[in-house]
Amino acid sequence: MKTIYSAIQPSGVMTLGNYIGAVDNWHQMQADPNNKCIFALADLHTITVRQDPAKFHENAMSFYALLLALGLDPKKSIVYFQSHVQQHAYLAWLLNCYTMVGEMNRMTQFKDKSQKHSDNINMGLMDYPVLMAADILLYNAHEVPVGVDQLQHIEIARDIAERVNGIYGDIFTVPKGVLKKVGAKIMSLQDPLAKMSKSDPNPKSFISVLDDDAVIMKKFKSAVTDSETEIRFDPENKPGVSNLLTILSVATKKSVDDLVKEFDGLMYGHLKVRTGEAVCEMLKPMKQEYNHLIKDEAYLLECARENAARAEAIAQETLDRFKKAIGYVMI
Ligand code: AQP
Question: In this structure, which residue's CA is closest to atom 10 in ligand 1?
Fold first, then answer.
């Protein structure tokens, strides 16, 4: 059995980038009977950026319902809130003592977010990768499916695990980051050189998986492309067009090569409309399921409770193993 672990922050809305780059991959991995899958809502990570309490609460419930609506099965996998399993924060503290300040200073996301939130460069923002290492290492994960932007954090989790193992022996499983073949980095619709991001202040730059069809179509129609007319896959010179082809490929399950042939002689406008329609179609069943689930708070909370208990049992075992190795008095 292989253990698969990943998480998503319930900050803002879930974007098409989050879905294509991460959650869709989780769903596929869950289908493999050889995988034991554990997925978290990284709600401790979310407060590294200041959140409005009411909105944060609403987003967290909404993301949990979305994960279930997108096909994550709380009976087959473990789907839980990070904040319900105390061992995450505990292990993060221990791991802090095995992580160098210089390593954290070099993290690209820390540098980017420090610039974006220059009025709130808190310790949590800097410590984000250590908490993420704790998330992954608690569950002895072999593989961590993420988008390209998170690979650096997986590398540091590996470094920390290897450092601890080097001192105390075989404590942690050293995890491996895995990327989707197509869609590991979905770009902004307004700036195709930047990642599609849920915290982008321009809502036209991202698709929320809960946007209604008219909004999705409008956003795709206004997607930035380039001044040429040829539809070909060339991320370096034609990032906007290539991004649309990538999204369309995932939404239709056709290869990019086949799509390029299909669009031979057609205009960018056709590609934008087809991509919008395909995305609306892809998201339709999930939206129906979401609308049903979000009204059933009792069910969602029951799932969250039951899944947190299953997660906690695994997490406590790992934490105890590490504490014993450090030399703590165990009672
Ligand atoms: N544009 C993207 N393309 C592919 N994968 C993506 N991911 C995020 N954006 C893209 C992947 O989604 C997972 C969950 O991400 P997260 O919520 O933990 O945080 P993030 O990477 O910081 O996502 P955002 O949307 O960019 O949020 P903000 O704006 O708050 O920083 C991860 O596996 C991530 O790689």
Answer: 17
